[in-house]
Amino acid sequence: MPPTGKTLSLLSRFPSFYQADGTEGLLPDLLTVFGEILEQADTDLLRVMRSHFVDTADNQGSEGFSSHLLGDLDHILSLYLERLGGTPQLIQVNPQFYPGAIKQLPEFSQKLHTGHTGHTGHTAFAQYLQRCLPRATQQALNIFIATDPKKRTISQTRVVRKALADGLNLCLKDTGLYHKNQEQFPTAILTPAIQQLLQQAPTHGLPLEILNRALIETAFPNEIEKSYAPYRDRLKALIKVLRRGAATKAGIRDIVAANLGIFGNDLSSQAAKAQIQIEEYLPKLIQSHVEIHPFVSIPVGVNVTDDLPLSLEFSIENPNVIPTRPTLRLNVTDLRERDHEDHSIELNPLTQLRFINVETQASFDYPGTLNVGQDNELQILNDGRLLFKGQEILAYDPFPVALPGRSTWRIEAKVRVGEPEGRFDETLFNLSRFDDSIEAPIPLTWQQMRNYGIDITIEMVHKTPGSFQVQVPWDIPGFTDKFGELEDHPRRQIPAIIDQVKAAGVLSVIAYSKRFTEYHALIDWLTVVRSPFTEQHQIKEANFDIGSQLQPYPDGIHHDLTDQLHLSGVFDYTEFNSGNRFA
């Protein structure tokens, strides 16, 4: 073999009488030894330089950050672990294939089908790998190859990619993958990490899968993604978050998302990141129910001729240390039903409802009427919305906030009637019914008020200061499926990460959510059984004519119209011995 590289450089430095330009002789053979050493030193130096950058470093030979075999990306990560206080491994080795690991599906399928990889010595390996796949995967691969590329559907491509990934995962457990194809993998094309794994001669478990995955990547460098590629991107995202700061609400969401392999500004990444919810103060819903039965008995000191407005009080308990706006759900009930009294006459609706805070005099006005019945529920939400019968209506002002502790509230309301006979709390002397609208609200007497009941459900959100909850989906398709379902899955590292980046004295809660779906197949059919009896019907048709005749009125048609105006009201009147001089 003629000398090359460093050997030629060394030979060129000798004088001409050494005859160093020849390819034969003891001197060229001697300098070739030193030249190979220098070339290996350059290769090692280049590899060291590449290992210092996340974009060029690899993670071959790694068995996890907590193991004794670390890769270059593991070493880079260790420099940033001090920022997280020694968080457990954020980079792990997962030799398993996932559908996205097959970067060029048409080219990879064609090479498996034809047994030609485009690399010298790998043709037999492609044939061996194709035979290693399950029969169902081979059939799906043959159909995919036979299909015109322009007619391949997205669903077909997705199915083939998933089948190939599952089939290749079975090939990773093949103990003879290297020994049966050893001639196709000369030492010159194998990385030091692969050579080190070959010296260990793994026969099962994770080391065997790592070795077989590295051999497949060597045979198909352009079609198969490197096993450490997802972790390189993940590490870059983590470093970016740490440099920006991860102690804020947005920073915690970013570092959780980056830990799960979610980064970037594309739509799929943004949608996946939006599934990570952070809720502050650990809100807990507290409900209380109040039943108000106004004036069930005659109040002490009240004459039967006196009239009272509908004014009721209730309490709201605010367990928070800051003013909080409650949610109220209100129904008006007919107490005559409870007391088994005659309730054939429907109670009139309430109007001009007002909620008043007795301490602060802050109030809320409901701009409509409220009928009796459970179907007429009024919901006053803490976000300022107002719902009546489940439909949102316009609310001018939000409900007032409740101060910490117990606060007293009062409800004021009036009744709406179609055409009132008069005012119950005023005399009829010198009173014209034409001064007021026919729909004017009027107060109720205590006898009428005792028929009304008000059911109020109060909902208050109890917030715990210095706490927050991170809700993470257990599965995020396209992201979490890149990692093996092992004890060191990234989702299990989230509590340790958040515990290091959150402020001291703050309580953090991690909640995982998983959705289960069930499919039930229901089949309905109708069987029609014909009657065994024979029925005969004789139908006869007859011709008939339909005619119409118009007989006009010779003298025309006369309609008598009469208009009348009826007015109702209570006119002024006087009483005997009333002192009215006009009597």
Characterization of the model:
It is a single chain. The protein has 583 residues and is of the alpha+beta class. Among the domains are: 1-47; 99-226, no CATH class; 284-462, Sandwich (Jelly Rolls), CATH 2.60.120.860. Helices cover 29% and strands 15% of the residues. It is built from 15 helices and 14 strands. A 6-stranded antiparallel β-sheet has the order 2-12-4-8-9-10. The longest helix has 26 residues, at 26-51.
Features of this protein?
six-stranded antiparallel β-sheet; 583 residues; five-stranded antiparallel β-sheet; elongated; Jelly Rolls; 15 helices; alpha+beta; 15% strand
What fold name stands as the CATH topology of the domain at 284-462?
Jelly Rolls
Distance between the termini: 144 Å
Helix content: 25-40%
Q: In this structure, how is the largest beta sheet organized?
A: 6 strands, antiparallel
> What are the segments in which pLDDT stays under 50 over at least 5 consecutive residues?
84-91, 304-310, 418-436
Mean pLDDT: 75
- Order of helical and strand elements: HHHHHHHHHHHHEEEEHEEEEEEEHEEHE
The tally of helices reads 15
**Tally of DSSP β-strands:** 14
Radius of gyration: 44 Å
**Which class of the domain at 284-462 in CATH terms?**
Mainly Beta
Tell me which CATH architecture of the domain at 284-462 applies here. Answer: Sandwich
Q: What is the global morphology? A: elongated
